[in-house]
Amino acid sequence: ILSLTVGGTVAISLGLLTSVYVATLHENDLWFSNIKEVEREISFRTECGLYYSYYKEMLQAASIQQGLHGLIYDNKTESLRTINILERMNVYQEVFLSILYRILPIQKYLEPVYFYIYTLFGLQALYVIALYVTSWLLSGTWLSGLLAAFWYITNRIDTTRVEFTIPLRENWALPFFAVQIAAITYLFRSHLQPLHEKLTLLAVFISTFLFSLTWQFNQFMMLMQALVLFILDCLDMLPTTKVTWLYIIQLTGILLVCVLQFFNSMILGSLLISFNVSVLLARTVQKNMKMGCLLNRLGKLFFHVLMVLCLTLLVNNFIKKILNLESDEHIFKFLKAKFGFGATRDFDANLYLCEEAFGLLPFNTFARLSDTLLFYAYLFVLLLMAIAAAVVAFQNLSGSANVQSTDKMEISTIVLKPGAAYNLMHTILFGCLALSTMRMKYLWTSHMCVFASFGLCSTEVWGFVLKSVRLYTPQRLCVIRYLVPIIILLYLSCKFCPGIVDELSELREFYDPDTVELMNWIKSNTPKKAVIAGSMQLLAGVKLCTGRILTNHPHYEDKSLRERTKQVYQVYAKRSPEDVYSILRSFGTNYVILEDSICYERRHSRGCRLRDLLDIANGHVMDGLGENEPDLKASLYPRFCEEIKKNLSSYSMYFTRAFQNKTFHVYKLAKHK
Fold this sequence. Notes:
The protein is mainly alpha-helical. About 65% of the residues lie in helices and about 5% in strands. The chain contains 33 helices and five strands. It has a five-stranded mixed sheet. Helix 20 runs antiparallel to helix 21 (about 405-415). It holds the Pfam family Dpy19.
């Protein structure tokens, strides 16, 4: 009881401290409390601004009912279209917060923006507590939870980005994902009481549902999780009944989200639904898969895996053909090109390939993680646990399902418990995902803190090491189990606490006068129903700051929007003024914003600049020195974004400059050709 009380108090304290820490960093970086409202809104960059705009809309509506009606029948996010925002995007969290802000008596004391950001920072407390509890459950001591939390904080650059991308969907979702992992870890404990098991399954369901509801990429993360369960179940390392319950919970959770999102096509056509259905069907066909000798079981296992994969593809293709779904085709095009299955000229796939966030994990990440000793500890624990897992898997496959030797039972339950096996496979698969796609590293690095801290406080890991070198005694095991994490905690405190204190005292201020000037001009000099075209990232801010109608936006999970974005981006391609005018007017555009940072881009190398991607997609030769593919041809027209600034009559008859500063150029389109 004392251990539980102390450990729980430490967990809650660390969670709250983390929350205050990231909130202070955000305030110090932007001087958020002192800047104007337009500057606060501009600080929500790219898609963050788009999501926050719906929270703002809900609060500005005359009533909750009118706010919901405005989201379900939205005609401001995409010009000449009425779309259902609740179906297209994961914004139920904004809806919930706006309703909560309306009904709570806090309007006099707390501005809406602070209620929003404090909620996100508060979720960081939940995140840290969940990581702490998972490590504690695995190791049996809250000291490992303390180490996990310390590592999470000292590796903040690689474990979270909440302080500068607050409304991003992953910042809502990952705390619930961490809670789900903690609940699954507890579920796999042996000899759970029936009531505890039911309550744990309920916790898994609620956290799975909330995770799915708050992030559009939930299906891909849960597919990885389903693969973890599938692999371990095939190797007989998890209780089959509990695994079945988890498959059903995943299906139920995501289908409930699908209903709430008005039967979102991307969810219905997800591989997760197809895979889970296929696994459950294959199980009913192969009931005696876990019986027989090694060769017999390997044969059955191979047939089972093949059946599940084939069924998954058949079910998925059947659903997509029946419903004519194409929402996620850009993701598969990107994956195909990324892993070397042929080069592509597809604009959407190349847009992802050229973004650093979707590239391989940089090597300097490992240098930072090693500086806190996290990476070394992680590799040490991973190696030992992988060896134990290989031994247990071999013994499970070579033994009989009906007869288990005492030695085998001992290895299965002591060396690698089901909860440890789950977390081992989880960290391996999500590690592979992070290595291949940098944006997904936050799913791995936070779990890395849990896994490494658990291993350093684990009796199984240190018992294995001491027995291997013939130095095992219960006293030595107890000493080393507590001494190693305490030494690391002292090291982290001495090395990083002064830096954290300095970081908290460092003051900066938001400064983006050109964007502020642009937003103020749009708000003052354009009609409220004006349609504005431009880059996805900028238009999200335009919607939030001015409420004007957009031609396109950064939420890219819709085929027609992707095609529309490519057409709008022709302002940066080599096209005639007539073509560009016709394209923009087809979307009802009144004003177009051109950005010098895109037109004269230097951030990416040749071949990855936005203008290069457009040239390749249009079959044109790229600018600058370097090779071009032989079938690319020179364009008959100069680059539109450069040529329009010369005020030639062929351009001025369609476009009139309305606003200009060092960064942006706004042109008004003629009403008639």
